[in-house]
Amino acid sequence: DTVRKVPRGALIVFEGGDRCGKTTQCSKLVERLRSQGVDAVMWRFPDRSTSIGAAINAYLAEQSHLDDAVVHMLFVANRLEKREEMLRLLAGGTTLVLDRYSYSGVAYTAAKGLPHLSIEYCKSVEVLLPAADLVLHMTMTAEATAARGGYGQERYEKVEFQKKAMEAFEALRDERWAVIDASGTIEDIHQQVVAVTEPVVRQALAGRALGRLWD
Ligand code: Z5A
Fold first, then answer.
1. Which atom of ligand 1 sits closest to the CA of residue 186?
2. Spatial separation of the C-alpha atoms in residues 189 and 25, rounded to whole Å
């Protein structure tokens, strides 16, 4: 049997601690891919533009209180409301570069250490979503990111909590993850990102099947 391979866009995800430079690197990567003729767009999660995203935003800004299980499901729903569009774009050949995704969903909730919101439970509610072809895990100490501008304004921006979330990210790593040292210059990091991303984009264009979380 020969399986026909269909070209598609790649699903590239940036993960890491608060203020480690994800947004900066997502924009640079999209710019670079586009300059090479790759159709690429950048999205971020949480997507604060939807009504679910507005509820998440109020929670993160400490303007509302929500039960931990409820806010967890809001983050999941905020991805699910973009699922069809995600799949349509990928199938149409657009590469999606995401600033956080399900891996943050699992890591930040699991970092709360609540028995009913374990890593396994958090993973189980993401299974309707596609897996990333590549997770770029930007690593830097929580103390170093805390020294950056804008830190400390939102609910989870506390060094001790960030450290627990970083441990949870480490527990999620598999062969689709690349660890990027986020403490260098913006340009050095970009070069590392490009080196690991380009082969993955080519594989997707060559028809490598899209996976599902957490196959
Ligand atoms: N969360 C969750 O709980 N569950 C979920 O399912 C999801 C998320 C998806 C908000 O996320 C919170 O939601 C987050 C996880 C949780 N809580 N925490 N922590 P967010 O993505 O909206 O917020 P963020 O992580 O705080 O993103 P950010 O502030 O936009 O940071 P960033 O994208 O990693 O960094 P940046 O904006 O590119 O750069 C930050 C600053 O550093 C800026 O001034 C840059 O100019 C500077 N910068 C960037 N790179 C460098 C280098 N290389 N050197 C020096 N300075 C640099």
1. 53
2. 8
Burial class of residue 88, CB neighbours in 10 A (0-12, 13-18, 19+): exposed
Q: The whole model's pTM is what?
A: 0.98
Whether the CA torsion 93, 175, 79, 150 is positive or negative: it is negative
- Terminal-to-terminal C-alpha distance of the chain: 23
What is the pLDDT, as a whole number, of residue 124? 98
Amino acid (one-letter) located at 113: G
- Tokens at residue 66, please? 């929500």
Angstrom distances, CA of residue 128 to CA of 96, 161, 211, 212, 215: 17, 28, 11, 7, 11
pLDDT in tens, 103-123: 999 999 999 999 999 999 999
CB count, 10 Å around CB of 7? 12
Instruction: Give the residues surrounding ligand 1 with Cβ less than 6 Å away.
Output: 18-24, 45-46, 60, 75, 99-100, 104-105, 108, 148-149, 156-157, 185-186, 189
ipTM score of complex: 0.98
